[in-house]
Amino acid sequence: MKELQKHLQLNNISYACDVPMTDLTTFQIGGPAALVIYPRDVEQIIQAARLCRELSPDFYIVGRGSNILAADAGLASPVICTRQKSPDIHIDDDGILRAAAGASTDECAKIAAHGGWSGINFMSGIPGTIGGAVIGNAGAFGSQIGDVVVAVEALSSQGQIVQFGPDQLKFSYRHSLFKEHVFTILRVVLKLSASSVRSLETERQEYLCLRSKKHVDYHVVPCAGSFFKNLITSSGERRPAGTLLEQAGCKTLRYGGAAVFEGHANIIINTGHATAQDVLSLADEMRSRVHAMFDVLLEPEVRMIGFNPE
Ligand SMILES: Cc1cc2nc3c(=O)[nH]c(=O)nc-3n(C[C@H](O)[C@H](O)[C@H](O)COP(=O)(O)OP(=O)(O)OC[C@H]3O[C@@H](n4cnc5c(N)ncnc54)[C@H](O)[C@@H]3O)c2cc1C
Question: Catalytic residues, which ones?
């Protein structure tokens, strides 16, 4: 790790040691990460990932940390934090939006709505980075980002830059190619269509309003959004995990500092001092109850990092 730090300094890339994962995740859970790297732009993400590959290959990528549960023991391997303070987002006259992976998803939606471009208004209020959104094919209100992605630039685990077109990206419900193969997403290109600014801005406000009624404000009540994926039956029918969990009597469950959010049975909240183990124990109980009642196994949507084995 000392060697890596030396090279980061030589390349003028910021980093910090022993950073609590509570600071890097919206769940505000997790022990210290030994080394967190803060690249300032895509070029520095490439440099940092290549250095990690050489000197400490088991590194992690974290965007906003809004879909992550980090282990209580912390992370011994380095973390590259892609989130960028000043978003690198551009839309050209043909409605092609280009964003760095660390740009905020909501900021992309806001800029598109203000500019009269439709296609990603459904992302209004989804926390996280656009890179994180592509990994899990983030979606809401019946739409998903995979519907508008036209290209992704990513760094392979061998350190090569690769361009992907939409046919290669294997988007399906909360899934993409990047859940099957390890890549660091660098840039995302979306195709939007022209629409009226006024109707887009009205729609954006409606989405934000619906979201504030249905979801928790993670700044006030730490959480990672929906904990489990919805079920897709063999006939393609969607069964919301929240409904199954509610019917299985999960709404009043809690374990240590982790509790099921009273407004939505598929959201686990950190009531203040939750450990990752509290969350896992609670999630186990929720899963068992649904299994006992419906004979189906829910799969976590939240990604676990730092657990052994992952
Ligand atoms: C209150 C709340 C509401 C939410 N609502 C929704 C919703 O409506 N719809 C929805 O789909 N999700 C929702 N989420 C979940 C989450 O916001 C999304 O999954 C989001 O897209 C994750 O982005 P992120 O940057 O936070 O990713 P992170 O949580 O940081 O990372 C998620 C995964 O992606 C990987 N990753 C992130 N960036 C990169 C990159 N550049 N290259 C390679 N790997 C990367 C990480 O290693 C990790 O495995 C919600 C979460 C919260 C807290």
Answer: 174, 226, 301
